[in-house]
């Protein structure tokens, strides 16, 4: 497995193809490109194939958040998510706050993350 911190070579089409295998969506290439340019992307590759990605959005001083941690289903349970999380801890410029999907809280706790603030969401009206 090859891990890259702040992977500048990650392209929107590669990320979209990868993300659709984990979290199906109708992702826009240009908006995805812009999103990737604003985050620190920590990636895991099996040879040339993207199999895991953790993205950090940070102001560089006060606040940082993990926007998502995704690992292809067939690679889950192999320590890839744990390694991506460790690399995030080692390379973030700030404290990281993030939400967890229900049912996987134990993964984060097992990896040394502490429960903190309750999470809330403000949804933007769909147009």
Automatic annotation (TrEMBL):
Ranges where the N-acetyltransferase domain occurs: 1-127
Species assigned in the record: Candidatus Limivivens intestinipullorum
Gene3D superfamilies assigned to the protein according to its UniProt record, in alphabetical order: 3.40.630.30
Protein name listed in UniProt: GNAT family N-acetyltransferase
Organism lineage string: Bacteria, Bacillati, Bacillota, Clostridia, Lachnospirales
Classification via SUPFAM superfamilies: Acyl-CoA N-acyltransferases (Nat)
Entries under InterPro entries matching the protein: Acyl_CoA_acyltransferase, GNAT_dom
Transmembrane segments: none
GO molecular-function terms, A-Z: acyltransferase activity, transferring groups other than amino-acyl groups
CDD domains in alphabetical order: NAT_SF
């Amino acid at each position: 497995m090859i891990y890259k911190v702040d992977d500048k070579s990650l392209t929107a089409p590669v990320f979209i193809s990868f993300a659709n295998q984990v979290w199906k969506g109708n992702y826009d290439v240009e908006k995805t490109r812009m999103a990737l340019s604003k985050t620190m992307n920590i990636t895991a590759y099996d040879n040339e194939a993207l199999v895991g990605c953790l993205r950090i959005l940070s102001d560089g001083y006060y606040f940082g958040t993990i926007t998502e941690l995704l690992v292809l289903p067939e690679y889950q349970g192999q320590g890839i998510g744990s390694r991506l999380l460790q690399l995030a801890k080692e390379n973030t410029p700030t404290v990281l706050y993030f939400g967890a999907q229900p049912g996987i809280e134990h993964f984060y706790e097992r990896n040394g993350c502490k429960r903190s603030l309750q999470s809330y969401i403000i949804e933007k009206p769909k147009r």
